[in-house]
Amino acid sequence: PRRLAYRWVYPRAVEPRPGNSMLVEFTLAEEGGKTRLTVVESGLDLMPWPDDEKQGYADSHGKGWARHLERLSAYAPAAPSRPVA
């Protein structure tokens, strides 16, 4: 598998870490001649936000990830294939 990860929503001029940012991880793995993309956004439980704000964030990002992944799944079959070194 190949993996890319980054931190999201940390305050400006602050080093991102658990408790002030979310960790977003993308993993690509071959499955039966196809590629499976897994996206995980974690760390919401560590954020110092009230429960209603956390729920709003989860709802918003859940819808956002669904929309972007749907667009990616429509684009990917038509994208040119390139070997990865």
From TrEMBL:
Residues 1-75 form the Activator of Hsp90 ATPase homologue 1/2-like C-terminal domain. Pfam families: AHSA1. Gene3D superfamilies: 3.30.530.20. This is SRPBCC domain-containing protein. Belongs to the AHA1 family.
